[in-house]
Amino acid sequence: xxxxxxxxxxxxxxxxxxxxxxxxxxxxxxxxxxxxxxxxxxxxxxxxxxxxxxxxxxxxxxxxxxxxxxxxxxxxxxxxxxxxxxxxxxxxxxxxxxxxxxxxxxxxxxxxxxxxxxxxxxxxxxxxxxxxxxxxxxxxxxxxxxxxxxxxxxxxxxxxxxxxxxxxxxxxxxxxxxxxxxxxxxxxxxx
Length: 191
Known about the structure:
By secondary structure, the protein is α/β, with parallel strands linked by helices. The protein has 8 helices and 5 strands; from the N terminus they run βαβααβαβααβαα.
């Protein structure tokens, strides 16, 4: 297992449309650390969009690239990291995430439905009834998410900034056991 001081301050996982990117950006801003999004890193490094990668390399090819980029980010990034919904399911990635400060963002299906925009840009739910596909995929993935998560946060309860503030409180109270946890609002005011 990696030492507690290695790697990201917090790693956000959860189903599609749970707000991992928007909450992650807010959390990084609150903690004054860098933010990285695994999907964005994959796109930047490959020069192709996620739908293009799925179309040309298939899901297996995409997942192999995703695992490779995740491994690099876990060793080099010390801020907030958000993952795509399927990243924690790949055995090598799940093993790399084990014992790390992983936070599961859960979301109600009704809220997810409003955020999915018909599945646009999401190859796994494209087509007829993206919400039904989302629900099926999310239900299948949830046991793996829960097995990795140190904490679970309702990402549908409030704005991205409010959800990030709740995660920040977990970090500040040492609940995620990262020695470089961002300070609480109270600690900042005492400085």
